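Hey, can you fold this one?
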Amino acid sequence: MKNKEKLNKYYEIKENKEKQKKKEEEEFKRLEEIKQIEISKYNQERIDFRKQEYQNHLLEKRMKKEEELKQKKLHELYLEKIRLSVGITAECDPERVKKPTLSSMKPKSTYDKDNIFDIIGYSDKQFMKDKRVRITEELQKEGLLNSNYAKSVLKQLAPITYRNKSEINF
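Sure. Predicted structure:
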């Protein structure tokens, strides 16, 4: 009997362990299901939130586009108003081409004259009166300007002094 009892006890313990293991597995499955349900709820909330955000984004985009179209129409109206205000109002008159313009009928101003400004300095005629300039020009033409002969000739010429009329009194 001892062996039978031991055997029964062993099977009973084994059966209890299996039941315990089965309970733990069921509990684990139940916890996993609860966890999955919570995750799916959270995911569904995020999906709904994202859908709402997308709808808001589309609405905002549509409003912005409508505002741009409105601004564009206002701008076009403004430009059209300007075009109408500056439009050409010339009459159809072929003889108008032959008539003088308003600016051509005005009297000539002082700026249309040849010598507007006084010459300060020397004119080309005054400059060419100087012997040194004429001799230097001739030496340049002959290619002798940098020679010793040219230097000696130019040293012998006395410089001419010009006096400009000055309005400054000393």
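Helices lie at 2-85, 102-105, 124-128, 131-142, 148-156. Let me know if you want another pass with a different chain boundary.
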